[in-house]
């Protein structure tokens, strides 16, 4: 039983440690980066929506910790985060 609990705890730590949605990675983002450059830092977005010539992408869950980046002409123009 102790091994099973320990295994679950270790797995939870590994999953959270691998998250690219972090304050450290957020600080690596710069205006003018392409979507590919942002994805090189954060990985693939969890959700993207196109509206009126802009692309808004979210990494993580908007109801929890997340990073949101808005692109115009494939260049990052705004960044925001919550819960980091």
Automatic annotation (TrEMBL):
UniProtKB keywords: Signal
Keyword Signal attached: yes
Entry superkingdom: Bacteria
Signal sequence, start to end: 1-17
Name of protein: DUF3862 domain-containing protein
Lineage: Bacteria, Pseudomonadati, Pseudomonadota, Gammaproteobacteria, Alteromonadales
